[in-house]
Amino acid sequence: MNHSEELASPGRRALFRRLVKPKPVELPESIYPRPPWAQDNQTFLALCDRCDRCIDACPQRVIRQSEESHPVLKGLPVLSLDYGRCDFCDQCVDHCPTGALSKEDGRRIQAVARVSGHCQLTLNQHCDFCVDACEEDAIRIKDQRVQIDEALCTGCGECSLDCYDKAITLHKRC
Ligand code: SF4
Ligand code: SF4
Ligand code: SF4
């Protein structure tokens, strides 16, 4: 039996297909949070057509185009809470024409606050601006340290805005 006759047999073809089964393509993932209500990474990448309507619709100006170099990620909308807060006004999701942002399964929280800088408390100073800023009651001070309850945090960014030392920053929720 020559090589092409061998592959022509159904058993051989099945074995060949198993051996050369294509590997699933690994999709790149942004290091930044997406706007609220963004679908999971795979669905979002498939649906978002970079129309920028969410960016234009955001009254707080906290959505911007990603500058990541990967061609799949570049230009897609990301949430940027360095100088603003999100008040979950719905404008981004309501203006998304493709369903990349979708209210179907409720609000998908994309960001989370973390203590990352030089908090005044670590210098033995008194400060509780972040505690007062958090409407979700997600921040506590214990043993002269800020503690953030990630389960309660909505990633709004208010605590970061109110911290004069920028000791709290917002990150992609994993
Ligand atoms: S919910 Fe409102 S404030 Fe938040 S990112 Fe969307 S448009 Fe901007
Ligand atoms: S409005 Fe929707 S489709 Fe357009 S850029 Fe934003 S997420 Fe993508
Ligand atoms: S991001 Fe918003 S919800 Fe989360 S800890 Fe800060 S103020 Fe609270």
UniProtKB/TrEMBL annotation:
PROSITE patterns with a match to the protein in the record: 4FE4S_FER_1 (PS00198), 4FE4S_FER_2 (PS51379)
Lineage top rank: taxon: Bacteria
Alphabetical list of InterPro entries matching this protein: 4Fe4S_Fe-S-bd, 4Fe4S_Fe_S_CS, Fe-S_Ferredoxin, NapF
Annotated 4Fe-4S ferredoxin-type domain residues: 39-68, 77-106, 144-173
Record keywords, A-Z: 4Fe-4S, Iron, Iron-sulfur, Metal-binding, Repeat
Pfam families, alphabetized: Fer4_7
UniProt keyword Iron-sulfur, yes or no: yes
Keyword S-adenosyl-L-methionine among UniProt keywords: no
Name of the molecule in the record: Ferredoxin-type protein NapF
Organism in which the protein naturally occurs: Endozoicomonas gorgoniicola
Recorded name of the encoding gene: napF
